[in-house]
Amino acid sequence: MPDSLYDRDFVIWSETQAERLRRLAAGERVNDVDWDNLIEEVETLGRSEIQAVESLLEQALLHAMKVAARPDDPASSHWRGEIRTFLNNARRRHTPSMRQRIAIPDIYADALDAVRQMRLGGPQRPLRDTTNLTLANLLSRDLDTDDLIAAVSAPTP
Amino acid sequence: MPDSLYDRDFVAWSESQADRLRRLAAGERVNDLDWVNLIEEVETLGRSETTGVRSFLRLALLHALKVIAWPQSSAGRKWRNEIGNFLAEARDRFTPSMAQAIDVEEVYRAARRQLAGLSMPSTPGPVPERLTMTLGDLLDEELTPDALIARLRDE
């Protein structure tokens, strides 16, 4: 049965559960652990990390798309700096088991959607509609910012 | 002994701990839980919520200070909307047990420091040195962005 403390006061809930786990770890019999919410929270810990990496990758792609669309924009050197920061942070937070769980084509589509809704102003160069970039490509230390920008630009006929 | 999976692959760690807890809850004997890290993570859950409320309050105050420091700015309306959003987030997430862990004067000082660090096109007008509002005042449902700005201006 879920403990309604979970909804009423999450801070106390978390302290209480930690305390009960500590007793359980010490070999005591503990009957009142709020298992359902506890297990869900523990699972969510990992999922939030995945979301954080997804969001960093989306930001990196979005900034690459901005540079690709507006290479001469006064903000483009700032955007380039952002690409590096987002990719570095994504690499740092990434863990091996994320590989099967992060779908780059979906993240690419979200970034493209976001960039198309921005009012970037002025003439814009076309972007690639879909990508064959992989998670490994994006997380590689060897990925050059210019190569990434080229990878999101529509091929010149 | 901490499971090094925790450092190596946090996602895999969280899934494996959830799985072991599920077995434990079902009455199975489970010997290989990573108790130390698990307990720390569960404690941190609550602390992060408190940190979240503190950040929303700081951001609400920061935006109110921006309106006071740059009263003529064309961004004033946007800042007011932001204040409303941040106050609503803080109220939504607040729970009574957080009260002792949130020092509003410290939150206000942090907002002032952040204001001082902003790069803006013009120099800021004066902002109040100290905050005399309480946590209860800031979380009051009736506190509108304009009311917060007015309260701060009166300080």
Question: Which features characterize this protein?
Answer:
heterodimer; A: 157 residues; mainly alpha; Malate Synthase G, Chain: A, Domain 4; 0% strand; elongated; B: 155 residues; 7 helices; 65% helix
Describe this structure in words.
The complex is a heterodimer of chains A (157) and B (155). Helix content of chain A is 64%, strand content 0%. Chain A has helices spanning 5-8, 10-25, 35-69, 76-93, 104-117, 135-139, 145-152. Chain A is elongated. Chain B has 155 residues and is an all-alpha fold. Chain B has a domain at 49-154: Malate Synthase G, Chain: A, Domain 4, CATH 1.20.1220. Chain B is 65% helix and 0% strand. In chain B, helix 3 (35-69) runs antiparallel to helix 4, helix 3 (35-69) packs across helix 5 and helix 3 packs across helix 7 (145-154). The longest helix of chain B has 35 residues, at 35-69. Chain B is elongated. Chain B starts with a helix and ends with a helix. In chain B, 28% of the residues are buried. The model of chain B has no long low-confidence stretch (mean pLDDT 93).
Write the layout of secondary structure elements.
The complex is a heterodimer of chains A (157) and B (155).
Chain A: H1 5-8, H2 10-25, H3 35-69, H4 76-93, H5 104-117, H6 135-139, H7 145-152
Chain B: H1 5-8, H2 10-25, H3 35-69, H4 76-93, H5 104-116, H6 135-139, H7 145-154
How far apart, in Å, are the first and last alpha carbons of chain B? 54 Å
The outline of chain A comes out as elongated
The biggest chain-chain interface is: A-B, 32 and 32 residues
- Give the SSE order of chain B as H and E letters: HHHHHHH
Residues in helix, % of chain B: 55-70%
Task: Determine Rg of chain A (CA atoms, Å).
Answer: 22 Å
Structural class of chain B: mainly alpha
Distance between the termini of chain A: 63 Å
Shape of chain B: elongated
Report the strand count of chain A. 0
CATH C-level class of the domain at 49-154 in chain B is Mainly Alpha
Pattern of helices and strands of chain A:
HHHHHHH
Say what the CATH topology of the domain at 49-152 in chain A is.
Malate Synthase G, Chain: A, Domain 4
Task: Please report which band the strand proportion of chain A falls in: under 5%, 5-15%, 15-25%, 25-35%, 35-45% or over 45%.
Answer: under 5%
The low-confidence runs of chain A, each spanning 5 or more residues with pLDDT under 50, are none
CATH class of the domain at 49-152 in chain A: Mainly Alpha
Query: What's the number of helices of chain A?
Result: 7
- Let me know the average pLDDT of chain B: 93
